[in-house]
# Entry
Amino acid sequence: MALLPWAAAAEGCRITGHDKPPKASLDASMAQPIYSRDLDKRQMTARHGLLKTNQTELGLTTSEVRLEVMPKVWFQPQGGGRGCAVLDSVTVVFRISAVRVEIARDFPTDSCAYRVIREHEDQHVRFVRQALEFALPDMRRRLAAAVEEQRALVTRASSSAAAAKAVQDAISARIRPAFEAYEREARRLNASIDTPQSYAALHRRCARW
# Structure
């Protein structure tokens, strides 16, 4: 079989037996939030380093984001301990892998304070999802462009693993700006309700804290 028609060969490389362009898939999702009432407000405040300030931690939402690039390559040894590879397929995982909502156990679940704190933290959960949805179109565009770029390349490497790592690094660099856009948007949205004015308005909603 002739050299792949779309691939620009690295010096001395010829790839045979593989005649399909690379495929890409994007796994983008968000885990269901887990709610916790394990700590009281003093313990929460201590855990998050606010004891020396005038703040008291009543509720907190945290999230973990997983970004992983998993390419598969078609590798052919070329002799002399070297080989050549083309991208066969790649899966990118861009996932909010954990969302944890802590609410201080000082407040009964039927109290005004609990309801107000829960509403505030649920807004943070929605912001996490909104930030993910905000970044997804750019992530898809960047992934498509990265795969198109790899479609035109043959990678020269010492092994299949080394070739896959080189491709992984190249694709990761191309899609990283979309991930950073997610982080910026999440910070912006969360900051919009984490203000002294917002907290004061929440406290005014309940007579007892």
Remarks:
- The longest strand covers residues 82-103.
